[in-house]
Amino acid sequence: MTMLENILTNIVSDMIFLLLSVLTACLVLILPQRRKLLRFFGIKEQKRMVVYISNLQIRPSSSSTQVVASGTMAPVSYSTPGGAFGIDDTLCSYTGNAVVFSEIMAANQYRDLFNFFIPSLSDKSNLLGTILFSDVKVATFISPKINENIESYGAIIALGSPGYNAVSSYIERELQSQVTFSDENDKFQVEGIPSFADLNYGFVERVFDKVNNRTCFYIAGLFEESTIRASQYLIAQWKNLQKRHGHDKPFVIVLKFDTMNKNNWTLVLER
After folding, report:
1. Which residue(s) pair with 214 in the sheet?
2. What is the SS3 assignment for 205?
3. Are residues 71 and 182 in the same domain?
4. pTM
5. Is 254 helix (H, G, I), strand (E, B) or coil?
6. 221 in the same domain as 170
7. Residues of the chain with pLDDT under 70
8. Bridge partner list, 36
9. What total of structural domains would you count in the chain?
């Protein structure tokens, strides 16, 4: 009987500790900062955010074909590039959609941003240390091909250029974005500023979809790494951006990233 009483006492003690920790964390630490976080990213009643990642189309390369070139009688061989390369660098037969792995990892970081653990519980017990609270649904979708398939509610984040992400194109054309990519996706321009063509440039933009009453973030760079680092900048710096731009003002940030040190970046433009 004494052993049973001890077990029950420990359980009750853990539950009381859990409740007190939740109340303390919510009142003192979590709720004020969380309110700012949700307002900054435009998380409203739906408690939902969708991260749209690039949609790559992999097509097979055509076999070599012989044709008669204009003005000659000799056949000329040509082939259409395409296909997917395997881990051994050989051309494989896969065709269809593909995604950028680093963009998936970046999308997961937004999910982690909106999840939180109760502080200091990990030192109390293994059971309590694994409790996770999440009241925001962060979904990751591959870019649709047409605007009609873009969700019309909840905050959205578009990763990548319009060449690979229809949501980025939608933001540029429909939501008065200050940033536009060239047709070749090899440079981008901010209104009134000469184009950025260096691969180390990336940007973060917040715009508002007034028709659907939601907040949209547009994050891209001129190659994969600059897109990811711009996304990481937003996650790391949202508190400072919230202080400067609040929760209801559009902004655009252009960054140049250090190729030698991934932790270094230079703020090139902010408005």
Report:
1. 209
2. strand
3. no
4. 0.78
5. strand
6. yes
7. 1, 4-5, 21-30, 61-83, 87, 116-134
8. none
9. 2
Residue with tokens 């097979």: 60
Integer angstrom CA distances of residue 58 from 85, 104, 183: 10, 18, 20
- The answer to whether residue 158 sits within a structural domain is yes
Facing residues of 252 across strands?
Answer: 205
| Token output for 196 | 């950025």
* pLDDT tens digits for range 105-159: 999 999 989 886 544 444 444 544 555 566 789 999 999 988 899 998 899 999 9
Q: How far is CA 128 from CA 11, 13, 30, 118, 235, in A?
A: 11, 12, 18, 9, 27
Residue 67 belongs to domain spanning = 58-92
Q: Which CATH number goes with the domain that contains 187?
A: 3.30.379
Under 8 Å between Cβ of 157 and 235: no
DSSP state of 148: G
By CB atoms closer than 10 A (0-12, 13-18, 19+), residue 201 is buried
Evaluate whether 42 touches 155 at the Cβ level (below 8 Å): yes
Phi-psi sector, 176: left (phi>0), alpha (psi -120 to 50), beta: left
Closest of 97, 118, 12, 87 to residue 53, by C-alpha: 97
Q: Are residues 67 and 142 in the same domain?
A: no
Q: Are 180 and 169 in contact (CB under 8 A)?
A: no
C-beta separation of 188 from 166 below 8 A: no
Distance (Å, rounded) from C-alpha 55 to C-alpha 141?
9
- Work out whether the CA dihedral 249, 170, 149, 85 comes out positive or negative: negative
